[in-house]
Amino acid sequence: MLKTYFKNLTKRRSEKSKSFLDIPFLRGESDDRVGAESYKNNAIVHRCVSLIASSASHVPWQIYKNNNGERKLQKNHPSVRLLKNPNPEKSGADFFTQSISTLLLYGSSYMLLGFDKKGKPARMYNLHPNNVEFVHSKNHLVGYRHRAGGQEQIFHIDPATRMSHILHLKNYNPTNPEAGSSSLSAAGKSINLHSKIMDWNKSLLRNAIRPSGALVFQDGNGYLTDEQFSRLQQQFYDNFSGSSNSGKPLILEGGLKWQETSNAEKFEKFIDLKDSSAREIAIAFNVPPQLLGITGDNTYSNMQEARFALWEENLMPLLDKYADALGSWFSCWFGEELIVDFDRDSISILGERRENLWAKIASADFMTINEKREFVGLDPIQGGERLNSHVNNDNEQ
Description:
By secondary structure, the chain is an alpha+beta fold. The protein is 42% helix and 17% strand.
């Protein structure tokens, strides 16, 4: 740090003053667009995507058949095995982690359905959005063109059912109804700002271009001779630079004083700016900032409330989106009306909230037994119209 400082000072000794107090201006590209590489080089983006994808992908799927308006759970249906083991290379959790991550980063996620020799759905694969193109005819979307490994194949969309061997899941895009809009693009400016701040911090630590202070003449008009300058420079190198010399007292000659150049207030604002940009990224991905470890976020009373908000406002709507799309897709290609849902009882945070609700209902002295049973989905019982929590033993006999 001191070598760089003295080297620059030697070149411009005739300059009377030079300000080191201002925070460097963050120069960068004027384009605020960001790409999927932000997942690899921005910690906040990586954490948001990983948290959403890994949490949602581990929820078990359930398949129901619709028989005269009644849902019947199917445990051995081929679609159940397909969701658990989409293909020989990926498990169900890995498959949907990739699909959800792609949806968040690109705004679109493509699944390809493979068939066995009998023409039944047997495999599912994720397709990279960069390898899929839309095929149009007379301004209508009629299929998807997939290019990979030097080969291409067109998967047509049935004009009647609007179904294809490719399932396209996408986020709402107000400017292009066919292509999805990613959370990444919405957070583009904040991601660029956060990345530039981190790059600046890295550059500061690596180059050490900002000294912690400067030697100045007390009257402001003095100059050192070349001999005095070289001697003072060598003294600093030998006695005060490096971690082993940290904390040593500084002995100055007459007329010299040490002036601090640090500006704690501006650096605190700089750190606040980094946290603010991280918070905006989290908001774009609909993740409570508290779950990302961002300092100063006390929006929720505790981490449990933050986790519940993540599931209620983000993950459950996302899983519903997948369930609806998969249900229509499977119904078409399996040739029977199927309903895809997810096991809500397996979500621990929802189970805790449900148990607390049931406990409050059980202790409510203004509700009858049957009202309480109806609330939790149970049939009424004889003698259950009473307000107390006990049913007459005569009714049980």
